[in-house]
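JOB MANIFEST
job_type = single_chain_structure
chain_count = 1
residues = 501
[input]
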Amino acid sequence: MLVTGVAIALYHNDKKTFLSSNGTRTGLPLALNFIASAMGCGILTTYTQIANIAGIHGLLVYTISGAIPIFLFSLFGPMIRRRCPEGFVLTEWVFQRFGPVTALYLSAFTIFTMFLFMLSELTAIEYAIEALTGLDATPAMVVECVVTTIYTFLGGFHVSFITDAFQAAFVLVLLVIGVVGYATSIHIDMDLKHATEDQLLHANKLGWMLLYILPVAIITNDCFLSGFWLRTFAAKTDKDLYIGASIAAVVAGIVCTLVGLPGILAVWTGDMKVYDENGSNAFFILVSKMDNWVIGVILIFSIGISTATFDSLQSATTSSISNDFFRNKVNIMWVRFIVILVMVPSIVVAVKAAANVLQIYLIADLVSASVIPIIFLGLSKRFDFLRGLDVMVGGLGALVAVFIYGTIYYGNAKEGARLLLIWNGIYSDKDWGAFGAFVIAPIGGCLIGFACAAIRISVLKIKDKITGIDRLPEVEVQQELLEDDESLKKSKLKALAVGLV
């Protein structure tokens, strides 16, 4: 993998494609890349857990919720690309539509989310290796980070795109082999199957609750992942994007369903109970009893999907930092060092304190549910009145609203604060706290943003009447200022204020 990545990086050593490669990729390579970006090693535990808790109902809700966002990039991607043809991440369009302060606000959440995903990926491959081999996985984690860092350092996004395509194709072949071996090695106890059919094969309350929570959480959170946007902008045509995203959505849905089924099968083999505390381990518990060749295939499969996802996140984080904080104006060598800087804290935290940090993992979903909906309203001319201040007040105000809701629902402020972290998880049909939080976050974000806009516009109109200024439509003023380079150079404060009020 290292030799292949380095060879590709040296052969295609083009500074212009280090951060992005807009308008160059066709449907099938895009599909393989979306697959690689969407499915890390974590799918081997998360989908089995929900299957063990909420049965086939919960599993299908989860897989469909994970597949839909990939397809949605083919619908919203062309809209963003037309408005921001020179960009390659969502924050660039936000910069042009809502101004630099709002872009930095979104960028902070984006980079934080991708860091959590990198940390989660390293933790997932650590567990997979230790579960399958019984060996300490730390050396393997370090090797994975070093390998991806070397070829990403040399080739950036371009080499990440090519290696992801190869890795995804290789992983899909291994998947077929693994499924055959897996299916022929499992022996189901029919008495246990009949005894648990009502719990695992029928619709249930938690499954219906997740039918709302998961689409909201995953669709909005995927918008924080710059890797998806880099691939969206890389599409040669809108048709290529549609083909690539559609294929990837279908394949991802099928694969995630297959890897989630062990959460049910482990109950039918007698290795687990329904709602087992070790439900997330079902996949590996069953694999550990299989022939060595099956274990070997699954191990290679795990490393393959982990590497593909990790280098995508590494490249995407680097591109985001370069674009959002340095406006792509720093020397390419400094950008390459960002690749290393991104990797170091990831591996250190993964080895030292991953369990503690990942307890706040779900806050990224709640933040995205608060922030993304009102930002995307900016795509419509009906909401041209929205400005950066409205977006930020709306998003942060929604989080405050969730805290207030949690305090009222649980009866104390401490639990209200814990709800912001989704501390109790989302897999309980008796706790409506998380459900309420994901209702309040998107709706509250929009309503509070509208309220802010109403107050802001009223204040500006009063000010205009007093001063006698005839204000231009707000989006036109913003575009005028963005294009007025000399004006922005003379006043940093004026530059920051673009798009804000």
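[summary]
The two ends are 50 Å apart (CA to CA).
The chain has a mean pLDDT of 88.
exit_status = 0
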